[in-house]
Amino acid sequence: MASSTPNTLSASHITGLVLAGGRGTRMGGVDKGLQPLHGKPLVQHVLERLAPQVGTLAVNANRSQLHYASFGYPVWSDLQAGFPGPLAGLQSGLAHCTTPWLACAPCDAPLIPYDLVAHLADAIAEAGAEAAIAVTTGAQGRQRHPVCALLSRSTRDALDAFLATGERKMDRWFATLHCVEVEFPEEHAFSNINTAPELQRLEEEQ
């Protein structure tokens, strides 16, 4: 476990990381986090929801770094070249953060709950776990959302070793940890915007 014991885990012990380091392939290769929703970039929606839940905040991005920096937070690129995926973003976050815990959320989930981190932290405290991920149940069945997670900085060495084997799957990574799954009732809150039509639908619905 990290240096903070479960019963002292609080926002000041947590760095938030918004993952915006992907290629945006399904959205035509554009920088997905910078696509507008209701007049502001997707990433800004996530930053505004995550900021009150953590002590410090950063963005993981591999392009448009100056644009991401304009939101006022540090920008941490992957430590590996070639856009290897969200686990590489987590690796960078764990390498850079100075708090015992790291919370992450993707830049394309603009409706994440305002109590996301608190519920994950409570579950970690209760189980004495080193990580927690969000889970929802609904029309699509039980869905795990490992990109919405809270994990101990002490997992960094294990993640380095995991990535060194060529593995990239987040589910497989979290399966190697003492990880708890935390159920959230708001299935829609974890919707990922992967395509232009999905973004347009959300624009019209909200």
TrEMBL record:
UniProt xrefs under Gene3D superfamilies: Spore Coat Polysaccharide Biosynthesis Protein SpsA, Chain A (3.90.550.10)
Swiss-Prot/TrEMBL keywords: Cytoplasm, GTP-binding, Magnesium, Metal-binding, Molybdenum cofactor biosynthesis, Nucleotide-binding, Nucleotidyltransferase, Transferase
Cofactor section: Mg(2+)
Coiled-coil ranges (or none): none
Description of its domains: The N-terminal domain determines nucleotide recognition and specific binding, while the C-terminal domain determines the specific binding to the target protein.
Domain MobA-like NTP transferase as annotated: residue spans: 16-176
Subunit structure: Monomer.
PANTHER family, A to Z: MOLYBDENUM COFACTOR GUANYLYLTRANSFERASE
Key word Cytoplasm present: yes
Entry-linked SUPFAM superfamilies: Nucleotide-diphospho-sugar transferases (SSF53448)
Main location: cytoplasm
Protein name per the record: Molybdenum cofactor guanylyltransferase
UniProt: GTP binding residues: 19-21, 32, 60, 78, 108
Gene that encodes it: mobA
Family statement: Belongs to the MobA family.
Location relative to the cell: Cytoplasm
A Pfam family the protein falls into: NTP_transf_3
Keyword Kinase: no
Binding-site residues for Mg(2+), renumbered to this chain: 108
Biological function: Transfers a GMP moiety from GTP to Mo-molybdopterin (Mo-MPT) cofactor (Moco or molybdenum cofactor) to form Mo-molybdopterin guanine dinucleotide (Mo-MGD) cofactor.
Enzyme Commission number(s) from the entry: 2.7.7.77
Signal peptide as annotated in the record: none
Alphabetized GO MF terms: molybdenum cofactor guanylyltransferase activity
Catalytic activity from the UniProt record: Mo-molybdopterin + GTP + H(+) = Mo-molybdopterin guanine dinucleotide + diphosphate
